[in-house]
Amino acid sequence: MLNRLMIALVTLLATTLVHAHGTHAGSIHVEQAQARASVGNQSNGAAFLTIENQGKVDDVLQSVAAPIAGKVEIHTMTMEGDVMKMRTVERIELKAGETIEMKSGQGYHIMLIGLKKPLKAGDSFPMQLSFRKAGKVRLTVTVVEAGAASKSGQDEQMHEHHHHQ
Q1: What is the dihedral of CA 120, 122, 126, 127, to 10 degrees?
Q2: Which of 50, 71, 119, 135 is the most buried if burial means most Cβ atoms within 10 Å?
Q3: In angstroms, rounded to a whole number, what is the distance separating the alpha carbons of residues 142 and 134?
Q4: Phi, psi (5° rounding) for residue 6?
Q5: CA 1, CA 22: separation in Å to the nearest integer?
Q6: Hey, which residues does 74 pair with through a beta bridge?
Q7: Is 1 exposed, middle or buried (CB count within 10 Å of its CB: 0-12, 13-18, 19+)?
């Protein structure tokens, strides 16, 4: 019994360390990749992560792919008065030494359009980010409870009912 407990503890610690250190490609470091669990019959979802350009040269996030969705886009969210607006962006420029934190309710996020199955807390799925200089970064996105990555109840439905410009 004690051996099983020790093995489980070591496995948990190793998994935690892998997620804490993130994923690298060239000078690009990606960590904290999470998606919110689906709410109701939502056909879209959102993923959030942190990208750090640890190099001395600028780079560009050119595209994102994930087999869990029919289409994956990079979006930005802004507030104009009391109206939340989301726009698709073609790329994200990362200056040397810059860190971009994708968070719910502000700035950039990854939009998962036409989910092939609902996102359930505790599940995970692969995602690939393509950078101009660093190349491809393959990572695993962990699905968390809907409220865990959200700042307000309104955020839960923002990806199902939003305005594109």
Answers
A1: 70
A2: 119
A3: 23
A4: -65, -40
A5: 32
A6: 89, 110
A7: exposed
Weakest-pLDDT range from 29-33, 105-109, 120-124, 140-144? 105-109
Domain boundaries, the chain: 24-164
- pLDDT greater than 90 at residue 78: no
Q: Which of 21-30, 100-109, 116-125, 139-148 has the lowest mean pLDDT?
A: 21-30
**For residue 20, is pLDDT > 60?**
no
Give mean pLDDT, residues 81-106: 92
Quick one: CA torsion of 63, 144, 104, 64, rounded to 10 degrees?
0
86, 108 in Cβ contact below 8 A? Answer: no
CATH of domain 24-164: 2.60.40.1890
CA neighbor of 51 nearest in space, from 98, 106, 19, 88: 98
User: What pLDDT is stored for residue 146 in this prediction?
Assistant: 82
